[in-house]
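Deliverable D4.2, example record:
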Amino acid sequence: MFYLTLNAFVFFFSNDSLRPPIYTIVMSVLALMGFVNGLTTMRVLKFFGITDWLFSAAVSSVSFPCFVYFCLGSEVVLSALGGGYSKHSLWWSLLTTIAWVIVNSLCCFYGAYKGYLMPRVKAQAKPQTIARTIPQQPKLMNLCFIMITFGAIQYLAMCLEFSAIFSSLWRSKLYTLFGWLFIDLIMLVLIISMLSAI
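Output generated by the structure prediction step:
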């Protein structure tokens, strides 16, 4: 889903005539991804013993669409207040966003229902009930140190990625952009593997 959206941004900025169909396709795919959202949420909650699929579907179907609705709605309202030009009216944009939320919510509820009908995934190994004391950890394993250090590493990786993407976009070097995206994918795999090793 992330790479679909990122590629849509690349083609969105590369050609003006592709913007309306790309926007429609991406928003439709993201609305239908509510099924995956609901299915995954219900499977994870069912693994931990929660079987109320209506509550989990409601939470997963409301949280992400409300965030998207808030972002798109605030952008449309600020554009209208600033006197910006838009092809569609404010009400058209708000109604299409509401329609997107409805489709996403329905897909999310359907995915949660399907996840509820699937059998529960059992844990692979039983946890031991023997209480063990955790030895004193070195200073480098302090939670504050780890959060600040690895947060800074991830933030710098994100800044490098966005600066490379935007510099290659504005200079019309799309092949450079895909090269940077490949390097970013390698960096992402390395950073996550290093974080999981600790």
